[in-house]
Amino acid sequence: MSDAQLVLRSTRVITPEGTRPASVAVTGGTIKAVLPHDAPVPSGARLEDVGDDVLLPGLVDTHVHVNDPGRTEWEGFWTATRAAAAGGITTLVDMPLNSLPPTTTVEHLRVKRAVAAAKAHVDVGFWGGALPDNVKDLRALHEAGVFGFKAFLSPSGVDEFPHLDQDQLARSLAEIADFGGLLIVHAEDPDHLAAAPRHGGPRYADFLASRPRDAEDTAVATLIAQAKRLHARVHVLHLSSSDALPQIRAARAEGVRVTVETCPHYLTLTAEEVPDGASEFKCCPPIRESANQDLLWQALADGTIDCVVTDHSPSTADLKTADFATAWGGISGLQLSLAAVWTEARRRGHGLEDVVRWMSTRTAELVGLDHRKGAIAVGRDADFAVLAPDETFTVDPAALQHRNRVTAYAGRTLSGVVRSTWLRGERIAAGGEFTEPKGQLLSRTP
Ligand SMILES: [Zn+2]
C-alpha cells in the first residue's frame, strides 16, 4: 500500500468474505488493498479512521425515476443524486420514463446524459425504454450504453410511455435477446386490472382491491413463458405479490434466466397500517398485507428475490390527493432506503452483510457493474458509506434532499445513520453537507 493516497480504517468493514476490522487503501479512486486494521499508514497517505462505524460499499440503486428533463418539478438529477449521497447510495440507474423525453431513442439518451452530466453527485447510468413502436431503436440504444430496457405490460401512468401487448412484448424481447440484452418489466396484467373492482376514493382497502395479486402473478407468468421460449434474460421489477414466488422458483429451477427485485416499501410498510386518504403510500403494484410481507422476506433470505431497490418515484405534493384512484402512484424513498431496510432486516434477524448483498452487490451484478461497484474489494471503485447502525433517527421530511418532501416514512423511527458517503475516494456527503457534483455517467460494459 506504499502508493496509497487514502486509508479508510474501521473495526467493521463489510467485505465479500465477511465483516472484519480492516484498513482499506485507496489510490486514484480505486481500492488497492484491504489490509489488517493495524497496518501501517504509508507516509503521504491520509488516514480516515471511522472507529466502530461500519464501512460498507456504496449502495447501487438500479431503480430510480429522476424525471429530468421534463418533470423536474417532481425531481431532478441535482436533488436525486444529493438525496442518494445522503443515503449512502453511490450509483443510481435512472428509469426511462417520466422524463421528457423518455429514454427511448439514442437521441433522447444523449439529451438525458447532457442534462445529468453537470448535476450528478453520484454515478448515474440509464435504462432504455421498450415501447410498441421502437423495436428498431433498441439495438442502437444497447450499443449506446443503456443497461437494459424497461417495458410495462399495463398502462404506465404517463401517455408518452405506452405499454406492450403480448405480441409487442414478444417482438421486443426477441430483438433484445438477439443482441444479448436485458428486459426489465413492470409486471401487472392489464386484463386482470380491468376486471378488478374499482371504487376510487380515500379507502386504502379499495385501492388494494383494484391492484390484485393475480394481476402480478399472471404478468410474471407471461414474462417467464416468453423468456423461456426465447432464451432471453428478464428481470421482474418491484415484485409485491408473494403469490408469484413459487412460479419464479420453478422457472429458475428449469434454467429460465429471470431475476427479481423488491422495494423497501413492500418490506417495511403494510396495507394494514396505511391511513385512508394517505396517498403518499400509493404505488403500483401496491403495498400489501403483513402476511405477504413475511413471504417477501423469506424469499429474500432464500435468494428467490435477488435485490432491493427504491423505485423512488416522486411527484409534486398536489398530485398526491386523498383519492387513491387518481393520486400519482409512486413512493419517494431514495434517501431513506438503507435505514428503512436495515431497521426491518435487523428486526427479522438479518445482518448488514445481507443488506449490502441485496442493495449493492446484487444490483451491481444485475447491471454488469460488478467489476467496479458492489463490494469492498481490490480493483473496485472506492465508493463507501460509513454507517452508525445502532443510532436511530425519526424521519423528518424537512431533512430530506428530495425535490419534494412527501414521504410515506414521515415520523418513523429508523436505525442506521449514514455518517458520510465516499465516491472514488472522495467524501461527497457528510452531516448534510455536499461537495460539488463528482459523479460520472456510466455505460453498460460491452
Ligand atoms: Zn419504477
Contiguous helical run count: 12
Rg over C-alpha atoms, rounded to the nearest angstrom: 21 Å
Shape: globular
> CATH superfamily membership of the domain at 58-366, which one?
Metal-dependent hydrolases
Under the CATH scheme, which class of the domain at 58-366? Alpha Beta
Could you tell me the strand content as a percent range?
Answer: 15-25%
Taking pLDDT < 50 over at least 5 consecutive residues as the criterion, the unreliable ranges are none
Q: How helical, in percent, are the residues?
A: 25-40%
* Count of distinct strands: 18
Distance between the termini: 31 Å
Tell me which CATH architecture of the domain at 58-366 applies here: Alpha-Beta Barrel
Question: What's the story with the biggest beta sheet?
Answer: 9 strands, mixed
CATH fold category name of the domain at 58-366: TIM Barrel
TL;DR?
Its cofactor is Zn(2+). The chain is an alpha/beta fold and 446 residues long. Helix content is 29%, strand content 23%.
Describe this protein's structure.
The chain is of the alpha/beta class and 446 residues long. The chain has helices at residues 77-86, 106-117, 135-143, 166-178, 190-195, 204-210, 213-230, 245-253, 264-268, 290-302, 337-347, 352-366, and strands spanning 6-15, 18-27, 30-36, 46-49, 54-57, 59-64, 89-94, 123-126, 128-129, 149-152, 182-186, 233-236, 258-262, 307-308, 384-394, 413-423, 426-430, 433-434. It has a domain at 58-366: Metal-dependent hydrolases (TIM Barrel, Alpha-Beta Barrel), CATH 3.20.20.140. It contains 12 helices and 18 strands. The strands form 3 sheets. Strands 1, 2, 3, 4, 5, 15, 16, 17 and 18 form a 9-stranded mixed sheet that branches. A 6-stranded parallel sheet has the order 9-10-11-12-13-14. Helix 4 (166-178) packs across helix 7 (213-230) and helix 11 (337-347) packs across helix 12. The longest helix has 18 residues, at 213-230. It is globular. The model has no long low-confidence stretch (mean pLDDT 96). The structure holds zinc ion. Zinc ion (ZN) is lined by residues 63, 65, 95, 311, 313.
